[in-house]
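Fresh eyes needed here. Have a critical look at this protein's tokenised backbone.
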Amino acid sequence: MKFKEICDYAKKRGWAPQPMNYAAKIEKDNDMGFVVSFPDLPNVNAFGDTQEEALKQAKDALDGAMECDLDLGNTMILPKTMPDSDKGLYPVELSPRIEIAYKLFEARRGQKKSEVARRANITPQAYQRFETPKGSPSVETLYKLAHALGKQLIVEFV
């Protein structure tokens, strides 16, 4: 599918493509209620008695798995599968705090934390905190970090 086709497909379903929305497949199971799996993340699963509960558990599972991968220094697995409720694929959004931490981690790849911190005029300890989901950099700090990383910060409301 070409990019324009993907955008048209998404618009028809009322869903704007977001890089940090993962498609979750919901299936009914006689023993476990509703089981959720992620086509792009085969090791992440959840379940619940209702679809709503299963999706809530799926969000917790997604956040937990991505946070663990970040802690381990693994490359982020970006979503490729498009949500489609007709096929039982529903969007599950990665928590923004994890998304920001992962994007900082990926942007810094190949650079030392201490060097980025120096260029951003912050302490290495402060920078380290921003690469974890517990960090919560302000917009001004994100701009400073983007500049220190040789990147541009773009904020959009879609």
